[in-house]
Structures are given as C-alpha cells and as structure tokens.
Amino acid sequence: MKLAARTTRIKPSPTLAITMKANALRAEGRDVISFGAGEPDFDTPYNVKMAAIEAIEAGFTKYTPVGGTDELKDAIIGKLQLDNNLTYRRSQIAVSCGAKHTLYNLAQALFEEGDEVIVPSPYWVSYPDIILLSGATPVILETKESDGFKIGPGQLDRAITENTRAVVLNSPSNPTGVVYSYAELEALAEVIVKKDILVISDDIYEKIIYDDCRFCNIASVSEEMKKMTVVVNGVSKTYAMTGWRIGYIAGHEDIISAITKIQSQNTSNPTSISQKAAVEALNGSQDIVAMMVREFKDRRDYIVERLNNIPGVNCMNPKGAFYVFPDVSSLYGMSCDGRKISSSTSLAEYLLDEANVAVVPGVAFGNDDHIRLSYAMSMKDIEEGLQRIDDAVTKLTAS
Ligand SMILES: *Cc1c(COP(=O)(O)O)cnc(C)c1O
C-alpha cells in the first residue's frame, strides 16, 4: 500500500507501546509490574464525575463551539489569572481533545517546511514527531544531568538560526522532573525576546511539584515575553482525567483563530460532557490535588532512595511530575548468562524478560544513559518492582 511520506517520518509513541506490551504479557498470565504509566493512578475526583453525569442527564450532549464553551474558557481564564497571574480574553483561548491535540494543532498552525523548532532533550516523546508532522525540523538541544537537565541562555542563543520559529519548554519536565526557576526563565526570556522567536510552554505538570519548589511560567517574566508565549495546559495530569481528553492553549489571538479553524476541519469541539467535567475540575475544590501531590511525594522519596541504593544506578531527585530518570550507564557492558547490557533499550528488555518489570528506555526521550520509571502506581507495586530491579541488576557481572 502506498502511504503518505509523513507516515514514515514518525514512529508510534514508545511510552504507549511499553504500556501495551506490559498489558499483553499480563494477559498471557505473566505477573508484570509496569513503571511505564504516563498517567496518575488515582480515580477522577467524585465532584468531576458528578458534573459529567449531570451534563448527560441535562442533555448537554450536542456540538459545542469548536474551540470550547464560553463557560470552560472562562474557567480557564480564571485559572490562568489566579494561578499564574496571566490575563487573557476568550478570543485568546482554545480547548482541544487533550494537550497532545493542542500541541498538534499548534504545530499545524505555526510551522511548515524549512522551519526549525528547538526541543531541549531529554524531551517528551511526542514533541519531535508532532513537529515532523507539520513539515518542520525538530532541532534537539542536548542537556546533561550535570547542567540540571536545563538549557541555558548561551546554549539557546547559539542554537537559534534564521529558520528558528520556536522553542519548547516543559517544566516540570517529563521525563526528568526538572523545574525551571523564575531567574532561569528570565535569562532565557532575554534571548527569546532579542531573537524574536516563540515559546511553547507545556505546563501540564504545573501542579505536581514538590518541596519548596514553585512553578513559574516564562510568560510572567514581562508583557513582551507574554506576547511571545503560548501556554499549553490541560486537566489530564492534575485531576487524573487522562481519558476525558481536555487540553487548552492561551496565546496570541491570531494563533488561536488559526488553531480553531484547523480544529473545525478535523475533530470539531472536544466532547461536550468532558468540557462540563473540566469546568468543575477547574472551579471546584482543589483539595484532592494536594492529596495526590502528597502521595506522589512519599513515593518519590522512597523510589529515589531505593534506586540510589542499587549499585550502578544514580538517581537525581526530581522536583516535579511523577517520574524518576536514573542514570544506568555504569551497567552498560555488564552481562547475565551471556546476555549483554549495552543500552537503555537492552536494559529495559532485560528487566522485562528476566524481572517482569517494564521501564521506558531513555533513548525514547533522547538520552540513552537513562531509563524512566513512573511512580504513578501503588506503593506496594513500587516496593515489589524495585526489589525485582535490584535483584536483576545484582545478577549482572562485569564481562
Ligand atoms: C501527558 C503529557 C501531555 C499530554 O496530555 P493530554 O492527556 O494530551 O492532555 C503533554 N505534555 C506532556 C509533557 C505530557 O507528559
């Protein structure tokens, strides 16, 4: 079958693939513990579910305006004002079917062949492919653990060419959990304003943040910087609503109307019922979020300490999101029963085959020295899974 060339430029999401492989092995009867999850394990809050049930019973089951209802846009405007001190009008907001869909629409609205978009690595798996689907070229800007996995102003400045249209920032980051401080964003903003490029700020993990860390959006640095920022966020991670598919964007009116036009020719509006649920998530009590974050923090504390006690594993303490991204490269070159570990992929395969534990190879995020483990799972499974990893790694010997 002849398919369009764009289908060969991209690959399926590797994180979804790992989850599916773990599920398939479970269906065969294997007792697999998966650290692959990219979603909270908590249930959607009760008040949110009730809002959806009420929407169904009230017959709120028809098309809505393409870019979302005014009620939801107003809830988003209120959230951005209250949490981020950013002021937007309705014409500057569009709601899509999840933040991934928002990012896809955004890339379609902004980028084309010849454009470059800077993506700091380690990156969320979908950024490069979403950029490729627009015809543009993702330019990967590598960061190292020794730089805190953050890009600096000099590095950004050097990467910008006359073709650069935008840079993607994701703080707290998936997969590293790294959070940019206000001062760091201020330094980046200086380069961005000078070079006149856009920032795509993916704030999906904004609320999942630990210790004394505070979330900042680069748009709040200055009025000028706000004009060059598109804010992408959604309810999936904060309110355990991944299946409801509601994401949103705030930014320049021209971008918003282009996105809405594109959306009018593909999905039309996001699900009417989910929009009602998202209004309740944003406007209702936020207590449940604090409860989830406390639970995530306890798990993070445990998993980081436990991983660092495994010889050959070095794990940085993440400040946000629900992933750890340990450096496992000192295990490369070791082997077990003639099976040699040489990369993040071969380690992930070894752990799945020998220890019944699923992890995501770091190479999927642009860094082959690391693996990603989600801790969006019960403490009991975390303990058992880490014991299995410890045992499997201990079996490895220098060869
Ligand atoms: C999960 C995730 C998204 C997408 O979330 P949606 O469920 O599509 O709203 C976007 N960015 C990052 C970094 C993510 O981890």
Sequence-ordered SSE layout with sheet pairings:
Elements (H helix, E strand, L loop, with lengths): L5 H4 L4 H14 L5 E2 L11 H12 L12 H15 L8 E4 L2 H12 L5 E6 L4 H8 L3 E6 L10 H7 L4 E7 L11 H14 L2 E5 L20 H5 L1 E6 L12 E4 L2 H12 L7 H12 L3 H22 L14 E2 L9 E3 L2 E2 L3 H12 L1 E2 L1 E2 L9 E4 L4 H16 L2 E2 L1
Parallel strand pairs: 1-12, 3-4, 3-5, 5-6, 6-7
Antiparallel strand pairs: 2-8, 7-8, 9-14, 10-11, 10-15, 13-14
Describe this structure in words.
It contains 14 helices and 15 strands. The protein is an alpha/beta fold. The chain has two domains: about 5-45 and about 290-395, Aspartate Aminotransferase, domain 1 (Alpha-Beta Complex); about 45-285, Type I PLP-dependent aspartate aminotransferase-like (Major domain) (Aspartate Aminotransferase, domain 2). The longest helix has 22 residues, at about 285-310. The structure holds pyridoxal-5'-phosphate. Pyridoxal-5'-phosphate binds near residues 100 and 170. Pyridoxal-5'-phosphate (PLP) binds near residues 100, 202, 204, 234 and 236.
